[in-house]
Design goal:
Domain Mannitol dehydrogenase C-terminal: 264-440
Structural class: alpha/beta
Family: Belongs to the mannitol dehydrogenase family.
Strand content: 5-15%
Shape: globular
Number of strands: 12
CATH class of the largest domain: Alpha Beta
Number of helices: 20
Organism: Sinomonas flava
CATH superfamily of the largest domain: NAD(P)-binding Rossmann-like Domain
Radius of gyration: 22 Å
Pfam families: Mannitol_dh, Mannitol_dh_C
Distance between the termini: 52 Å
Catalytic activity: D-mannitol 1-phosphate + NAD(+) = beta-D-fructose 6-phosphate + NADH + H(+)
CATH architecture of the largest domain: 3-Layer(aba) Sandwich
Bound molecules: nicotinamide-adenine-dinucleotide, D-Mannitol-1-phosphate
Helix content: 40-55%
Number of domains: 2
């Protein structure tokens, strides 16, 4: 279900003739047995790639729905769901056509979603809808649409199904279950009961750095591959997927592609959310305050790197399972972050800070406190976020956050009151802890450019 090319086919790209658009050319797509919500870059570099690399890939096609706009589906549908994965290593690019997406669908097409979820052959729903969406209850959110689709499945008697959250959310299986049941209860109480009995919520830790595709990436694929692909995806060579939970209607043999199935996901999830994503958030806020644009640039700044390693030292004390191999994991992260050919923009990582810091910094701060230490490095990450939102607000620079209005109101306050109000948006449980507020307040400004 995937085809690799590492060198440019010769011909059209060099003769100036129009390049053919990527397409299946009559070769059938695999049958749809997986529905995905959130057709973005990461879904295509990760779950779709793992599915294409499973030994039974020919039996598992994905119908992938966009979240907000139809655009990504329109572009991909014109290519029969095919796209190029550009695996960008430090020493060069490898190109691979991924064929597991059988259908690319506008998220607004709820009739198609309900139709697929009503079919017993649909066994899995995967999600990459971003962290903030799990807090949205409106009927037109991706989870609202999923709940209506599950109601259609119940009515059709199509049987059990697995929902697999692949978002960077702590306890993503439980969080997805709570959100789905909350929305279902608002529709009809019986539906929430059906969901609890028939839907398995699988927890995952997902990892593959996948920055946004640029026009230069589109041009590179055309030049190197000899076809036109309007929607390639660029990712690092590294890919990791750890899952825990039941698949009552079956699943692809993702383990053949390197996925790992475990009984207890939490230690793996914490390792990834704290060490990788926590470091990313720290670099995103401190790095931008210090004038950097990408992860690799921020990492090369000794102040940022020292703050990141201090945070890792704190987090590592709470990652005690030997299988986590934390020293090797940290070394691998340094190599991955330093990849000079992956332009991972700090502005993209910085979005939705309140939701992200709650999972990336606050648990480490609380764990350090519980052990009688100050958690100064985790506190510094929160202080850097406060400086970042205050600087954005005062310069009029746009930033994205589900609590943006509350952030803007808080930055209107002065001094320690401002620190306390902002902390309340990230960690309400800590605002009455005066030493914590004082510590974070004292750290404000410590990572801005001197
Ligand atoms: N990019 C990565 O490196 C990476 C790695 C691991 C995990 N993830 C997880 O995957 C998620 C998606 O990342 P991506 O790079 O594919 O992003 P993306 O912007 O390419 O895609 C996000 C998808 O979610 C939808 N969406 C976002 N906000 C929405 C909203 N408010 N309502 C409805 N739909 C909405 C978008 O329409 C899009 O389909 C991340 O938030 C993260 O949790 C990403
Ligand atoms: O995708 P987000 O917005 O949750 O977080 C930004 C990055 O930290 C994240 O995308 C990482 O690159 C990714 O989690 C690596 O697997």
């Amino acid at each position: 279900m995937s085809e690799k090319t590492s060198a440019a086919p010769q011909g059209a790209a060099q003769t100036g003739e129009p390049l053919p658009l990527l397409g299946r050319k009559g070769v059938p797509a695999p049958p749809v047995r997986i529905v995905h919500l959130g057709l973005g870059a990461f879904h295509r570099s990760h779950q779709a790639w793992f599915t294409a690399h499973a030994s039974d890939a020919a039996e598992w096609g994905i119908a992938s729905f966009t979240g907000r706009r139809p655009d990504a589906a329109v572009t991909l549908a014109a290519q029969d769901g095919l796209y190029t994965l550009v695996e960008r290593g430090g020493d060069g690019d490898r190109f691979e056509v991924v064929g597991s997406i059988a259908e690319a669908v506008d998220g607004g097409d709820v009739a198609r979603l309900n139709g697929l979820l009503s079919s017993p052959s649909t066994a899995i729903v995967t999600l990459t809808v971003t962290e903030a969406v799990y807090e949205k209850d409106d009927a037109d959110s991706p989870l609202g649409r999923l709940v209506r689709g599950l109601a259609a499945r119940r009515d059709a008697g199509a049987g059990p199904i697995a929902v697999v959250s692949c978002d960077n959310v702590a306890g993503n299986g439980e969080v997805a279950e709570a959100a789905v049941c909350r929305i279902a209860e608002g529709i009809d109480v019986g539906l929430a009961g059906w969901v609890r009995e028939h839907v398995s919520f699988v927890g995952t830790s997902v990892d593959r750095i996948t920055p946004r595709t640029t026009p230069e990436d589109v041009a590179e694929v055309a030049a190197q591959c000899g076809y036109r692909d309007e929607s390639p995806v660029v990712a690092e060579p590294f890919a990791n997927w750890i899952l825990s939970g039941e698949f009552p209607a079956g699943r692809p043999r993702w383990e053949d592609a390197g996925a790992q199935f475990v009984d207890d996901i939490e230690p793996f999830e914490n390792r990834k959310l704290w060490l990788l994503n926590g470091a990313h958030s720290l670099l995103a806020y401190a790095g931008q305050l210090r004038g950097h644009a990408t992860v690799a640039e921020a990492l090369a700044d000794p102040e940022c790197r020292q703050a990141m390693e201090a945070f890792w030292d704190e987090a590592e004390r709470h990652l005690t399972l030997p299988e986590l191999s934390v020293p090797a994991y940290r070394q691998a992260l340094l190599d991955r972050f330093a990849n000079p050919r992956i332009a991972h923009h700090l502005a993209q990582i910085a979005a939705d800070g309140t939701t992200k810091l709650r999972m990336r910094a606050v648990p480490v701060l609380i764990a350090e406190h519980a052990d009688g230490r100050s958690g100064v490095a985790a506190a510094r990450m929160i202080a850097a976020w406060m400086d970042f939102v205050a600087a954005s607000a005062s310069s009029g620079a746009d930033f994205q956050d589900p609590l943006k209005e509350q952030i803007l109101a808080a930055v209107g306050l002065e001094g320690r009151d401002r620190t306390a109000a902002l902390l309340g948006l990230v960690a309400p449980e800590l605002v009455d802890d005066s030493p914590v507020v004082d510590r974070i307040d004292a750290l404000r400004g410590s990572l801005t450019r001197s």
